[in-house]
Each structure stands twice: as C-alpha cells, then as structure tokens.
Amino acid sequence: MLQSMRSAAKYIWIILIVAFVGSFLLYETSGLAGRAPVTTTTSIASVNGEEILLTTWQNAVNALEQQQQQQLGSALTLDQRQTLEDRAFDELVTEILLTQEYKRRGITVTDDEILQAARLAPPPQAMQAPDLQTDGQFDRQKYLRLLSSPMARQSGMLAGLEAYYRSEIPKQKLFDQVASGAYISDERLWQLYRDRHDSATVSFVLLRPETLTDTAVTVTDSEIAQFFERNRKRFEKPGRAVVSLLTVPRSVTAADSAAARGRIDRLRTEIVGGAKFEDVAKRESSDSVSGAQGGALGKGGKGRFTPKFEEAAYALKVGELSQPVLTPFGWHVIRVDDRKGDTLDLRHILVSIGQSDSSATRTDRRADSLAAKAGSQEDPKLFDEAAKQLGLTPASVVVIEKEPLSFAGRYVPSVSAWAFSGVRPGETSDLFDSPEAYYLARVDSIIAGGPQTLAEVKADIRRRLARDKRIEKLRPVGEQLAAAARTGGLEAAAAQRNLTVEKSAPFTRVEAVPGLGQFSPAIGAAFVVPTGQVGGPFKGQDAMIVLRVDARIEANRQSFEAEKTIQRAQYTQSLRQQKVEEFLTNLRESVKVDDRRTEVLGQLRRQSGV
User: Fold this and answer.
1) 283 C-beta neighbours (distance < 10 Å), count
2) Residue 136 pLDDT > 90
3) Contacts of 232 (CB under 8 A, 6+ apart)
4) Most CB within 10 Å of its CB: which of 74, 281, 468, 525?
5) Closest listed residue to residue 333, CA positions, set 276, 252, 271, 289
6) Alpha-carbon distances of 429 from 84, 337, 365, 603, rounded to whole Å
7) Confidence at residue 130, expressed as pLDDT on a 0 to 100 scale
8) Rounded to 5°, angle at Cα 465 from 462 and 470
9) What residues have CB less than 8 Å from 65, skipping those under 6 apart?
10) Domain end: 317, 351, 385, which one?
C-alpha cells in the first residue's frame, strides 16, 4: 500500500487534503508565470537561514483564497487577501520551525506509523466528505474500501495521504512531548471550579485622582527608561499612510426609489391575480437566501425583523398579503402562512432600492473614465487632472496598516492593503468597487511601522507613570476612609467625605466588574475579606478602592464531585493546548524572521508595470 502511495507522488489529493495543497502546486499555477521575470528562487523571507520562496508563499495564499471564495461565494477584497497572505506566511514560518525542531529532537515517522494512521485516524477532510457518509455519519468501511481501490492509487490520493501523515505525525509527537506534563490535581481542579462558582457581592468607594488638591508628582527619566525596557513590544506601531481618495458614488435618485416601488406593486398585483407567491419570490426577490426557499423566513417570535416589517406582519391574518412595506432594506410584500400566539410563519418578497439600469450605466461610465485617466499610474498629476475633469473632490485620509479603511461612515475596500503592498508615494491604485461606490486612491506619503524609540513614546510613558503615582497618593486617604468605615460604617464614612458608595452585582473571581476591574487586588479581596468587613485600600487602574463584602456564596462541593471527571478532561485538554501554544509562541520569538514580502512585491509590481 505504501509503495502505491509513493508511486503516485506527482499527484495532489485536492479532494481531501486542502490544507496542504499549497506545498504541492507547481509554479505555473501561481499566476505569476509570464507576468514578470521572477524565478523560482526568488525569496520573500528567511527563517534561521532557510528561505521561503515567493512561489511557495503565493501558492499557499492562492489555495487559501480558493477556499475562502468558495465559502463566501464571491471574490475577495485586497484587505481580505492581505489577511490570507499573513496567515499563509505564518503557517509557512511555523512549518519550517517545526521541521527544524523535529531534527533537533530526533523525531521521525515510520512507514508502519503512516499505514496505521491512514487506517485508524482518517483526516478531518475525509470524515466530512459526502461520499464517505452513510445516514449522515462517517462510514469507516467506505473509507477503507476507498483506500484499497484503484481510484485511490490512480488519482494520487494515497500520495496526498502519505504527505499529510508525514507532516501530522511528527507534529503530534512533538506536541505530546511538549504537553506531557499536563496534569491537574484534585486540589487545583477544586480551586478552578471555585473560581467560577464562588460568588461575592460588595459595596465600594472609588477614590479618584481628580479629588486630590495636590496632584504634583515627579517621574524621572530613569523610571521612564525602565518602563520602556520592560514593555518594548507594547510600543511597536503600525505603518501609516496619507492617501488621497476619489469617490464615484452609486447614488440612488428619487426616480430609482420610484422604480423600486413600481416593481413591488407589479409583483403584488401579479400574485393577487393568481401567480404563486413562492414562484414569484424565487424569480424576483432580492433576498437570495429566502428567495430560493420561495420567500420563506421560517417560524419565530417578535424581535426578528425591523420594527416596520414586524408591525406590518403582525397586522396580517393568515394567508393575507400585505401592502408594500418600506424598510431600510427596500420594499417588501409579506404573507403570513401560519400563526400561533406571537409565533409567525412568514414569507416575503424583497425589492432592493438601487440604481436603475440607466443610472448605473452613467455611474459605471464615469468610474471607467476615472480609471482610464488615472488608474495604476506613477505620475501623481494625472490623479489631480482626472479629478478636475470629472468634477470630483479628493479627500485626504489616513490609512493604518492592516486596518481596513473607513471613510464617511463606510467601509472602503482594498485601499488599506494596496497602500502597504510596496507602492511608492505618488502611485495610484486600480479602481476599487463596493456596493456603495467606486474608489480610486493615490498614496501621498508613507511612514513605515515598527518599534518606536524611547524619544517617541517618552511623553506617553510619563503620563502613564504620573497617573499611577497620583493614584498611589490616594493611599493615605483610602486608609483613613477604611479606618472610619470599620468603626462607623462605609456609608457614613463616605458621606462625611462627600463620596458615593456603589454596589456590585454578584460576581465570580474571573469576571470583569465595573469599577473593580478584572483579576485585580479588589476582586481578590472580595473573596478573602470576611463578610461584613471592610477591606482596602486597593489600587485599581483608575482609582484607589475601599470595599465592604456584603455577601459571599461558596461553591457546592457535591456538585463539583459529580462533575469532576468531565471537568478534569476539559481542563487537561485546555492545559495541553495552552502548553502547545506557549511552546509555539516561544519558538517563534526565539528566531528573527527576515520578512521581505513588501519589498519583493513592490519590485514585482514595478517589473510587471502593474
């Protein structure tokens, strides 16, 4: 069987092993061949001296993109593709690091292990394949018959399986080693249970720095430097670009609104005249999901739809057809198929309000003209000239690296990803399209992201440390308040100082509590200070806190014992996963990855004239 696997190694098991398809695809499938003089040895990064080729990365991205497009049913924006590019890159880096770790630890995989895994541990894609299901469940016998069939050998499926297990088995061995010490004692398990089931209720007073008469504090340069050294990673900044943006809106006119109303009126008349509601919905509804089901929205109570839609629906009798109803989605005709109390079984037909064909044609022509005059250019003057000729006003916007751009309350697709794809100041984009508008952008300036210097963040650190010191200056006031509260009561002590006593809802040790924070000293004290007693002061993020424990309910030990076996399995799995994630994080941080993607892509664009 293994020999058959190897004899078909030139094939790809596309049907089942989707996750690894990028490692097998040939250079020609990347879409780069013939577009630019890029060779198969072009490198976009190195990891411990091992290169990642542009073609390897691009193929991995293309494989992820195909999966995403199948799920979404539409093409991706550049923003979405950028997310996939980063994901593919991270996966390739991780695979290199893991392979190097296998060699260091002497982890290997034998032929027998592959054969056993293939028979006993089918990959997830196989278990989800419709052809290997019987009555909705994975059929192991069908799977085993498939493995021994001529089709498996001829299609290359066995070669794909071997590659899959040669990757997965060493990984599982490594992770088993990393997580081998994952164990939770009964005592620790009981504490974790208590953390989520013990509850406390407190009354508390917040002493804020604004109440101080003397707010003067001193923050030394040495303190700032020490804080900066301890928190260097927190001060890495994303890239920023200033972009000029031209917008050609898909404006909806009064005539477009009237046309949508006229269309819904005609559809309603057609149904009243004897046409079947379900057939008209399938043919005409802008709601493609319900339209495919004859307009069916299913059964449900109130709160599912917009107020105007529900008002009209609940006013109907069973079988009655509504008059046209306007909502933010467009015009609807509604029918109630069944009603039991507040539960309605509904159907609707939606006619969205959009541009008419003539309006859309005019908008498209204007956008095409803009693209022809200024799209994908290196001369920034062409952008300004096109804007003037078409009567468009450029807007100056700031784009943050890896953050999709929003402008005038709307998402602007692809501009952010394009601005940080290696373009130079002065270059203009392609024409980007959204349901609301067309967009063309020009990069005016780019500031690269990366670690900030101490000089750049010194003022921010000074403000943070000064705030902490001002809160600490409240400790004597908090001690006086706590002492007075212990003798005369929290409410009376607070009233004497014109302070407000706040009360919490019941909370556990792991919850975030307004005013008290999460995993803070005040939260911990709520489960230590005796009930009815006052504790504090405790330093919070924005205030000094004095509290009184009003009530506390302990977790039920019998309930814990009944759930202990399940709890141990869950926490052990969680602990194993945590150990693996920590290992991978440390592994990634232990090396310096030389990432040259932006530089290479910029060069590729200029070579290909795109």
Assistant:
1) 12
2) no
3) 451
4) 281
5) 271
6) 20, 51, 18, 16
7) 84
8) 120
9) 76, 81, 84
10) 351
- Is residue 400 one of the residues assigned to a domain? yes
Mean pLDDT of the chain: 87
SS3 assignment for 527-588: CCCCCCCEEEEEECCCCEEEEEEEEEECCCHHHHHHHHHHHHHHHHHHHHHHHHHHHHHHHH
Residue 569 domain-assigned (yes or no): no
DSSP state, residue 591:
S
Q: Which residue matches tokens 């996939």?
A: 84
Q: Is residue 461 part of a domain?
A: no
Cα radius of gyration (the chain): 32
Q: Are residues 336 and 319 in contact, defined by beta-carbon separation less than 8 angstroms?
A: yes
DSSP string, 454-523: HHHHHHHHHHHHHHHHHHHTTHHHHHHHHHHHHHH-HHHHHHHTT---EEPPPB-TTS-BTTTBSS-HHH
Token pair of 152 as six digits: 């498996």
The model's pLDDT over 270-282, given as tens digits with 9 standing for 90+, comes to 999 999 999 999 9
Q: List, in order, residues 6 or more apart from 21 with CB less than 8 Å away.
A: 12, 14, 59, 63
Helix 157-178 × helix 557-589 angle, to 10°: 110
Q: Is 17 exposed, middle or buried (0-12, 13-18, 19+ CB in 10 A)?
A: buried
- Taking CA atoms, 80 is separated from 61, 91, 398, 423, in Å, by 11, 17, 19, 18
Q: Residue 337 phi/psi, 5° resolution? A: -90, -30
What single-letter DSSP state applies at residue 150? H
Using DSSP's 3-state secondary structure scheme, residue 424 falls into: coil
Tokens 């004290």 map to which residue? 525
Q: Is the pTM of this model over 0.70?
A: no
Q: pLDDT tens, 53-89?
A: 998 998 999 989 988 887 777 788 899 888 999 999 9
Q: What are the beta bridge partners of residue 245?
A: 395, 441
Write out the residue range of the structural domain in which residue 390 sits: 239-251+357-448
- The Cα-based distances of 148 to 16, 133, 140, 515, 593 in angstroms read 16, 17, 13, 65, 43
- Residue bearing tokens 């943006």: 245
- State the amino acid at position 229 in one-letter form: E
CA-to-CA distance for 42 and 46, rounded, in angstroms? 11
Q: Single out the residue in 351, 374, 406 at which a domain terminates.
A: 351
Read off the DSSP letter of residue 428: B
H/E segment holding residue 384 = helix 380-390
CA–CA distance from 415 to each of 82, 245, 380, 404, 596 (Å)?
11, 9, 16, 8, 21
Q: What is the pLDDT of residue 590?
A: 83
Looking at residues 355-377, what average pLDDT do you find?
90
142 and 154 housed in the same domain = yes
Nearest to 264 by CA among 339, 213, 325, 220: 325
Q: Each residue of 195-205: pLDDT tens digit?
A: 999 999 999 99
CATH code, domain with 204: 3.10.50
Contact predicate 199/554, CB 8 Å: no
Number of alpha carbons in the 13 Å side-chain half-sphere of residue 127: 7
What pLDDT, on a 0 to 100 scale, did the predictor assign at position 269?
94
